[in-house]
Design brief:
Largest sheet of chain B: 2 strands, antiparallel
Distance between the termini of chain B: 30 Å
Low-confidence stretches of chain A: none
Low-confidence stretches of chain B: none
Largest sheet of chain A: 2 strands, antiparallel
Oligomer: heterodimer
Largest interface: A-B, 39 and 45 residues
Order of helices and strands of chain B: HHHHHEHHHHHEHHHHH
Mean pLDDT of chain B: 91
Helix content of chain A: over 70%
Strand order of the largest sheet of chain A: 1-2
Structural class of chain A: mainly alpha
Number of strands of chain B: 2
Distance between the termini of chain A: 42 Å
Structural class of chain B: mainly alpha
Strand content of chain A: under 5%
Chain lengths: 291, 310
């Protein structure tokens, strides 16, 4: 039953899957890793992006990937507004923002989830495009086209964000916020405006991630619960706020999940991300590439 | 003394009421409300006093329910033994989770507890003995003294509710509660002043888990059925955490007020409108309260009495 061939196939699939996991986690890597916002609603916002992609794609006939790119703008605005609100209500007041800030995002995730149920029902939704459903073969392995699309988009996203954070002025300012808030303030910069901008980018990226999610597999409103495990696992494993670390951690999760799927069957797959997350938190909370 | 008279009155009412000819539905709905009182009170011991947000309520509730099922199926154990076994297992889980994760703070502790839910759920889905993914039908044994099994369960849950509130109150007023509050405000300062922070956190985590497990133990009997997806549902998380935050986290009375309010509201909304709306109502109330009234209903009452006494 166990063979090298199967293992190779699982690893190959895991690499593609892993890049997808990196892409859905990179928004959280910015909002939690760099900005220190307990953004439990990240997967719910991403699933919301999937549903908006579904509307644009099935009702207006757009290409789902193009829809995801276009949705980045309204989601950017949404993210800016959301951070502003969070800052005014929780961060500014300071004391005991921990419990209430977490409860706020948790409640928000539930509101989004139920909102999606009311708007679209509990049925699974999927999109159609030329590259979905097709596959091509390399040697004896068949690779589904949609996985390759997600793979490429994930790589582009990661490198774009890495470049943005290290080469541009605003990008460096975002990293500075993560390192030393007080020092930044002494330099005359406004950390709130920078964090607001960065949270907007993180949320905008989630829209594209949502589009990829619905390209890869059908989506239902409660799917965000599974992605709490996957996204947080990747971000924690990566070490907070490291973009290339996010890619590497995504690959680790993708490969492990794919191997478990092959060896033990689909009913064990949901526990992989959560188990890995718990193990990392218990053994090495600073992650693989931690500061 | 006042507390114990009150507790005795509630206890007598909780056990006596099911003996009277009151409509059966009252007990069916009341059972759920009371179990929310237990869950919220248990959640508050770690979440309110110590400031550690536990999203893992369903994990402890669920391990309690499944322990009860195993004890019942294996040994035909009576309900009291099932509840004790469930509290023991859930307490052990709490201790284990505490040992593994209490070095973590804030969101990382919270996310680790979410992970525990899904790991437990996956284990139960793959465990054939307790029914796996399809679930298990449970035949209720015959009941003495009370007319129906549901009435008996209502009385049992009333006892559990009073018991867990007494535990929470004891923790709040004793040195344990003072230590937990100290470490909530500043863990370093507490440790430096000689508060055994790690021990206290482990204790809170274990007790909180054990009480949640006890709340879950009668659930399979209540439904005559057990199944992983609804047992490990995140709606228990938002119910427990929401009740404590909406009621007020600083005092043992807060979670009771919140749970009575949310639990009753949920029963009414589920019956009259739909179960989706009921999750929405809790979510919206939670967000409104953390934003507009961070001290909960207790805080509102305190503010109101202070301004009217002036």
């Amino acid at each position: 039953m166990f063979s090298l061939d199967l293992l190779f196939e699982a690893v190959l699939f895991g690499v593609l899957l892993g890049c997808f996991y990196a892409a859905v986690s990179i928004g959280l890597s910015v909002s939690l890793g760099l900005l220190d916002v307990p953004h439990v609603a990240h997967p719910a916002i991403m699933v919301m992006g999937s549903y908006f992609t579904w509307i644009l794609s099935s009702k207006a006939g757009w290409d789902p990937l193009a829809a995801g790119v276009v949705l980045m703008l309204p989601f950017f605005v949404l993210g800016v507004a959301l951070y502003r609100f969070y800052y005014e209500v929780f961060e500014k007041r300071g004391s005991d923002a921990g419990v209430r800030g977490l409860a706020f995002f948790f409640g928000l995730a539930f509101i989004i989830e139920v909102g999606l149920i009311f708007a679209f029902g509990v049925d699974q939704r999927s999109v159609e495009a030329a590259y979905i459903g097709k596959s091509f073969s390399v040697g004896e392995y068949r690779i589904p086209m949609r996985m390759v699309v997600a793979f490429v988009v994930a790589l582009v996203l990661t490198f774009a964000l890495t470049l943005y954070l290290s080469k541009t002025f605003t990008g460096r300012a975002i990293k500075a916020v993560a390192q030393d808030l007080l020092a930044l303030r002494l330099m005359g910069a406004n950390p709130v405006r920078i964090k607001q901008w960065a949270f907007g980018i993180a949320t905008g990226v989630s829209a594209l991630a949502g589009a990829m999610l619905i390209i890869i597999s059908p989506v239902e409103p409660a799917i965000d619960r599974l992605y709490i495990g996957r996204t947080f696992c990747v971000v924690v494993l990566a070490g907070l706020g490291s973009m290339t670390g996010t890619l590497a951690a995504g690959l680790v999760l993708g490969i492990v999940e794919s191997i478990v799927l092959m060896m033990f069957g689909a009913s064990w797959a949901p526990a992989v991300a959560f188990g890995l997350l718990l193990a990392v938190l218990g053994i090495r909370p600073q992650g693989l590439f931690g500061r | 003394m006042k507390f114990w008279t009150g507790a005795a009155i509630v206890l007598i009412a909780g056990v006596g009421l099911p003996l009277l000819p009151v409509n059966e539905y009252f007990f069916y709905a009341g059972y759920m409300v009371l179990s929310y009182v237990v869950l919220a009170t248990a959640w508050n011991i770690l979440g309110g006093y110590a400031g550690y947000v536990n999203f893992g309520t369903p994990a402890f509730f669920g391990i309690g329910a499944y322990s009860a099922v195993v004890l019942f199926k294996w040994l035909q154990a009576p309900l009291a033994v099932q509840i004790l076994g469930a509290a023991l297992m859930a307490g052990l889980l709490g201790f284990g989770v505490g040992l593994l994760t209490l070095r973590l703070r804030g969101i990382f502790f919270a996310i680790a507890t979410v992970a525990v839910i899904f790991i437990m759920e996956t284990l139960m889905v793959n465990w054939r003995y307790v029914g796996g993914a399809t679930g298990l039908q449970i035949l209720r044994p015959t009941v003495e003294l009370f007319d129906t099994y549901t009435r008996m369960l209502f009385a049992v849950m009333a006892v559990l509710a009073v018991g867990s509130v007494a535990v929470a109150r004891y923790i709040q007023v004793s040195w344990v509660g003072r230590g937990l509050r100290a470490l909530r405000d500043s863990e370093e300062a507490a440790e430096c002043s000689g508060v055994p922070t790690l021990k206290l956190k482990l204790f809170a985590c274990t007790v909180s888990g054990a009480l949640m497990g006890a709340a879950g133990a009668p659930m399979p009997m209540y439904l005559s059925f057990i199944e992983p997806v609804s047992t490990f549902n995140l709606s228990y998380t938002i119910g427990a955490l929401g009740s404590a935050i909406i009621g007020g986290m600083v005092h043992w009375a807060g979670p009771i007020i919140g749970a009575l309010l949310l639990g009753t509201l949920q029963q009414v909304v589920t019956v009259t409108i739909s179960s989706e709306i009921n999750v929405l109502v809790v979510g919206v109330l939670l967000v409104v309260f953390v934003v507009a009234a961070p001290e909960g209903i207790l805080g509102l009452i305190r503010k109101w009495t202070r301004s009217s006494s002036r």
